[in-house]
Write a structure and sequence with these properties.
The complex is a heterotrimer of chains A (491), B (501) and C (94).
Chain A lengths: L1 H4 L3 H18 L4 H26 L2 E4 L10 E4 L1 H22 L5 H23 L3 H19 L5 H32 L4 H10 L4 H18 L9 H7 L2 H26 L6 H24 L3 H25 L4 H35 L8 H6 L1 H15 L5 H15 L4 H21 L16 H20 L2 H7 L8
Antiparallel strand pairs in A: 1-2
Helix pairs in contact in A: 2-3, 2-5, 3-4, 3-5, 4-5, 4-11, 4-14, 4-19, 4-20, 5-6, 5-11, 6-7, 6-11, 7-9, 7-10, 9-11, 10-11, 10-13, 11-13, 11-14, 12-13, 12-18, 13-14, 13-18, 14-16, 14-17, 14-19, 16-18, 16-19, 17-18, 17-19
Chain B lengths: L8 H18 L5 H27 L4 E8 L2 E7 L1 H24 L6 H20 L3 H19 L5 H32 L18 H18 L8 H4 L5 H10 L1 H17 L1 H6 L2 H21 L4 H21 L3 H32 L10 H4 L1 H15 L5 H15 L4 H26 L20 H19 L7 H12 L3
Antiparallel strand pairs in B: 1-2
Helix pairs in contact in B: 1-2, 1-4, 2-3, 3-4, 3-9, 3-14, 3-19, 4-5, 5-6, 5-10, 6-7, 7-10, 9-10, 9-14, 10-13, 12-13, 12-18, 13-14, 14-16, 14-17, 14-19, 14-20, 16-18, 16-19, 17-18, 17-19
Chain C lengths: L1 H23 L3 H23 L9 H34 L1
The chains are: A mainly alpha (491), B mainly alpha (501), C mainly alpha (94).
């Protein structure tokens, strides 16, 4: 048991980045090679885990040989693996990019331990099997994210990320009170056991509902669901580029993942259509408002940050559709489309931010109106922005095109056609803000002689965007198979 | 060709320009030779593959590439008679346009970017042509929008950026309407495969109102690219693009994709008889007729040569929609064959317009006095194209108009003859003055911006031969309309299949 | 039983008071104190849950949670203080 615990990919996904964080702290001079090594190792552990789950179905692991009520439990079902795979591939791309990004050695040394800790928290969050571990990972994620976001040390960055930290703390405390209530009511923290207890015990509806409200609103704050998004744009726009990419593509996504997890797995018996409709209305407002603000943004990174607010909104539109769709292929389609949109956004937004960072370092600023020359000097970067942008709009063949197609299909089929209007409005606004940037790339500046100018920075951005545009859009079939691998409930 | 390769062929035809396109992006700007080799390799390879496919389809072989994107969502590339018509048109014209574009952009910047998107654009067009279901059609239709945007914006001048923006605003909004229509239709019927004769005939009567609404969405989406009035606003604006791009927009890719989509929806989704039952054909016919007259009237008032040609496109492309809107195989033949005929005639005209601009700096009709004497071969090609547009036999355009008129009579819609007559007069009204100026007015003392290429011909070879060749196509398509494998014969084959004759 | 309810109820009241204070007070220090009070409230609830009657060993799980929670709260507070101090330094210099 103990011998194979050390080599179990489920454990390694969390311990390897922790080890990396320790090593890069201890040996700061070698932070870059050690960090890259840890990144590669973690990513391969995640891929191995993915292969394992693909072959053998959902996995569970109880650490330390305790009873499931007491022990730290890890579990990997299809949903968790899908998000973890995305997160780890994106994180690898960010690591490669970051290895050349920081000019100041002090920042670089500070970056790696925090970044690997954040990575460990992310993996822990996707793979944790009980409510309290989720809380710990959530807090670790929030703290490291805020610390990384403030890394530039500029006034705007520090104050934005201080606000981000406080908001995050408020969200996690609210979540923790929810956990305390659930433990009071059901005496267990294991996700599967709590789910069964909620389903079996409708006398405790009031407590469960209170826990649901506390946990979901706390997480919605961390996920920047409109109107709780106010903290996100300044925090994401002022962080160093690789950090912005991680914050927008992964950290926010982790909270959304948790909401989906709780909503669908844990609280399914008590979440009605009305509650789902409420969240979806907020999501719709996020789509319209976020896209509108992105269109009006003066800076490239601020545009990307507002676009995240909008993209998160789309994910909530699925909730009322899932609420009225009975189990079967149509529901599987909706769930897969939801995950597909989350994954596509992860790849596309990280690619977008990495490219935007390169534009910023090259131009010395990221004011969209004055970017013409830079966009033309860096064809590969501009191309990455174009690819990522078309995935954000939801143009084919990106994954979000398939996602939006299925979303609209589900909306029409369940008679909630108004979401189609939200989706089309959002797409139009997104086209407007993406092409507002891209139109700067066609000017009269002298032409560059080659496509790729800075491979270490441009190739990750290009590859991440390319995954969002081509791979997820044209070969998303395996996602359905993966999502069908559910955990069998409790211990 | 062995049987087991048949499922790969349509996909390979799309990839044959896509992959060279991707490599072209990576080619260093000054490596003219490698880029040209990649361009021509893709174009010729595609032509050969299409040749194989035509032969196979003629023998009744089925070519179908199916890729599952997700459960229930399939990417289908399927070669039927209609797609072969469009694929052949775009492949042949792409080869010619590539040669022309290489000559045209000889010394301008950003060539790798240009030819990269150029190849993507043709790949998307071929994808539109080969799409076997509505989903696949929508995917390639949107990719086409994305791939042409950089071409329209290519020059980088403020006007180019503005034209590209307008182009994008129109086409992306149209694309969204098309998408909503396609999704809605799918919720009613499941996957919408293109089948000759349509797939919706059996739908219950209480769904007919929804089907009409969906048709309106689809038509609005397709009408933007097909430049149906009032959705045509982008076309004259995007005239700022370089001449090879205009040729591509007007003759090979964008406008054609819209018109082709209308044919697909009317014939292979709704079915022409069912469309007529729903009253959709009458609306389409009215829109198309109005566009034909309106475009011609606007063309009369333009002094810019390319703008005049652009409005002429607005008008001429609607002949295709008009053919689809008249119930009866003869009108169908007229519409289908005009898909090809308009393509070869219009591309000739745009090539010539580009030649006048590049060689003499002539951009306006009023500057064209005597160009026929300075550039006889180009002007001869232009004349063939223009007379064909008017409908003078034996040039291709005459065949289209003849069948459309006959189809109108067959369908007992005699007003079609009026529309055709009026349009022919207007065509003559805006083309004949150009020809008169070019051939019979005296040469000016000096051209606005003359450019000598140092060849013994009137202009550079790569610019001269493409219009001459396409003008020859116009004559051949008209003269040998009854020969096997002519566009007309092929259009008749399609019409027979659509009407189950 | 009443003691348990009183203790847990007080925890909830602390949570609400902390939330109120967090929302209405702008200065960083007050916000941090408010957050810690909210955390304290949650810990109260957990400790109340652990109680299983006089003479019976309390449930160890909530205790473990409270301990972990305190560690997390302390580190988060520390980071917030560092960031706040950095801001204040800059304000003085600028």
């Amino acid at each position: 048991m103990y011998s194979n615990l050390l080599t179990d990919p489920l454990v390694l996904c969390i311990t390897l980045p922790l080890l990396g964080a320790a090593l890069t702290t201890a040996l700061p001079r070698h932070a870059v090679p050690l960090g890259i090594l840890a990144a590669l190792a973690t990513c391969s552990a995640a891929v191995t885990l993915g292969v394992d789950v693909w072959q053998h179905g959902a996995l569970r692991l109880v650490l330390g040989g305790w009873e499931p009520e007491l022990a730290i439990g890890l579990r990997a079902d299809g949903l968790a693996v899908a998000l973890a795979l995305m997160a780890n591939l994106v994180a690898l791309g960010i690591s490669v990019y970051a290895s050349g990004y920081f000019r100041d050695p002090e920042r670089m040394r500070a970056f790696w331990p925090l970044w690997l800790l954040l990575w460990a928290a992310l993996n822990g969050l996707f793979l944790a099997g009980d409510l309290f571990n989720l809380y710990v990972m959530l807090e670790l994620l929030g703290i490291t994210a805020a610390a990384l976001g403030a890394l530039t040390g500029s006034r705007e960055a520090v104050s934005a990320n201080l606000r981000y930290l406080l908001v995050g703390l408020l969200g996690s405390i609210s979540y923790l009170l929810g956990v305390a209530l659930l433990y009071t009511a059901h005496g267990t923290l294991d996700l599967g056991l709590v789910a069964r207890a909620i389903a079996a015990n409708d006398r405790l509806f009031a407590v469960d509902a209170a826990a649901l409200v506390l946990m979901v609103s706390g997480l919605a704050l961390k996920a920047a669901l409109f109107p709780l998004h106010f903290w996100l744009p300044p925090a994401h726009a002022n962080a160093p580029a690789p950090v912005s990419a991680a914050l927008s593509a992964l950290v926010v996504k982790a909270s959304v993942y948790l909401i989906i997890r709780l909503w669908l797995d844990l609280f399914a018996p008590i979440t009605g259509l009305a509650a789902a409709m409420f969240l979806a209305l907020l999501g719709a407002a996020a789509v319209v408002w976020g896209s509108w603000r992105a269109l009006r943004a003066e800076r490239l990174k601020l545009l990307a940050a507002y676009s995240t607010v909008a993209q998160i909104g789309y994910l909530f539109l699925f909730l009322p559709l899932l609420a009225v769709t009975p189990p079967g292929p149509p529901r599987d389609n909706l769930l897969a489309a939801l995950v597909l949109m989350a994954l596509t956004h992860g790849f596309a937004k990280s690619g977008f931010f990495l490219a935007a960072g390169l534009v910023q370092t090259n131009a010395g600023h990221d004011r969209i109106d004055d970017l013409g020359g830079t966009a033309q000097r860096l064809p590969a970067t501009t191309f990455a922005i174009a690819l990522a942008g078309s995935a954000l709009i939801g143009l084919p063949p990106s994954g979000s095109f398939i996602g939006k197609w299925l979303l609209m299909q589900g909306a029409i089929e369940s008679g909630q056609w108004w979401w189609v209007i939200v989706v089309t409005t959002g797409s139009l606004l997104a086209s407007a803000y993406v092409f507002r940037v891209l139109s700067r790339a066609f000017g009269l500046e002298p032409t560059p002689l080659k496509f790729v100018t800075d491979a270490r920075a441009e190739v990750p951005a290009l590859l991440l965007s390319l995954v969002a545009v081509a791979l997820l859009g044209l070969a998303s079939g395996p996602l359905w198979t993966l999502l069908a691998l559910r955990a069998g409930g409790g211990a | 060709m062995s049987l087991d390769l048949a499922p790969l062929l349509p996909g390979t035809i799309v990839l044959s320009s896509l992959l060279p396109g991707v490599f072209i992006f990576l080619v260093r700007e000054e490596n003219h030779l490698l880029r040209t080799v990649l361009n021509l390799f893709g174009a010729v390879l595609k032509l050969v593959l299409v040749g194989v496919m035509i032969w196979g389809v003629y023998l009744g072989q089925v070519f179908e590439t199916r890729v599952q994107i997700a459960p229930g969502l399939e990417l289908v590339l399927h070669a039927d008679a209609l797609s072969v018509l469009f694929v052949t048109l775009s492949t042949v014209l792409w080869l010619v346009t590539t040669v022309y574009a290489i000559g045209y952009l000889e010394h301008s910047p950003n060539r790798s970017r240009f030819f990269g998107f150029f190849s993507l654009c043709v790949s998307a067009t071929v994808g539109v042509a080969l799409a076997g279901n509505l989903l696949t059609f929508v995917i390639f239709y949107e990719i086409l929008t994305l791939a042409t945007y950089p071409l329209v914006a290519h020059r980088g001048t403020p006007e180019a950026t503005r034209g590209a923006k307008i182009y994008l605003a129109y086409t992306l909004s149209g694309g969204l309407l098309l998408l909503v229509g396609a999704v809605w239709l799918r919720t009613l019927t499941g996957p919408v495969d293109f089948v000759a004769g349509g797939v919706l005939r059996g739908m219950p009567a209480d769904m007919h109102r929804e089907l009409v609404a969906i048709f309106a969405l689809l038509l609005a989406g397709l009408g933007v690219k097909a430049a149906l009035v009032p959705l045509h606003g982008w076309l004259p604006q995007s005239m700022v693009a370089p001449a090879p791009v205009s040729s591509l927009l007007h003759a090979v890719a964008v406008v054609k994709a819209g018109a082709f989509g209308i044919l697909r929806v009317v014939f292979d989704v709704y079915g022409v008889e069912f469309s007529s039952e729903l009253g959709l054909l009458a609306v389409l016919a009215a829109l198309a007729s109005f566009t034909i007259i309106y475009g011609s009237l606007m063309a009369l008032t333009q002094d810019g040569l390319k703008k005049r040609l652009a409005y002429s496109t607005v008008s001429q492309v609607s002949y295709i929609a008009l053919g689809a809107a008249l119930l009866g195989p003869i009108a169908t033949v007229g519409g289908m064959v005009h898909l090809v005929h308009q393509g070869i005639m219009k591309i000739t005209l745009f090539f010539c317009a580009g030649n006048y601009a590049e060689t003499l700096g002539v951009h306006n009709v009023s500057q064209m006095d005597g160009v026929g004497r300075r550039m006889p071969l180009t002007t001869l090609a232009f004349s063939v194209g223009a007379l064909g547009m008017i409908g003078i036999p034996p040039i291709a355009g005459f065949v289209s108009k003849w069948y459309l008129g006959l189809g109108g009579v067959e369908a007992q819609q005699y007003w079609v003859l009026l529309v055709l007559g009026a349009s022919t007069l207007l065509n003559a009204g805006y083309f004949l003055p150009i020809l008169y100026r070019a051939w019979f007015r005296p040469l000016p003392n000096e051209w606005p911006h003359e450019h000598h290429f140092g060849t013994r011909f009137e202009t550079m070879g790569a610019l001269l031969w493409p219009p001459v060749i396409t003008a020859a196509f116009c004559l051949v398509a008209g003269l040998f309309a009854a020969a096997p494998f002519s566009p007309l014969e092929w259009a008749q084959l399609i019409a027979r299949r659509e009407y189950g004759l | 039983m009443t003691a348990q309810f009183l203790y847990g109820g007080a925890g909830l009241i602390l949570f609400v008071l902390g939330l109120w204070s967090f929302l209405v007070h702008a200065p960083l220090l007050r916000k941090l104190i408010a957050l810690n009070i909210m955390g304290g409230g949650v810990f109260h609830v957990l400790i109340a849950v652990a109680y299983r009657g006089d003479g019976v060993t309390p449930d160890p799980v909530p205790h473990a949670l409270v301990l972990t929670g305190i560690v997390v709260a302390v580190s988060a507070t520390a980071l917030a203080l560092v960031l706040g101090a950095r801001l204040q330094d800059e304000q003085r210099q600028g």
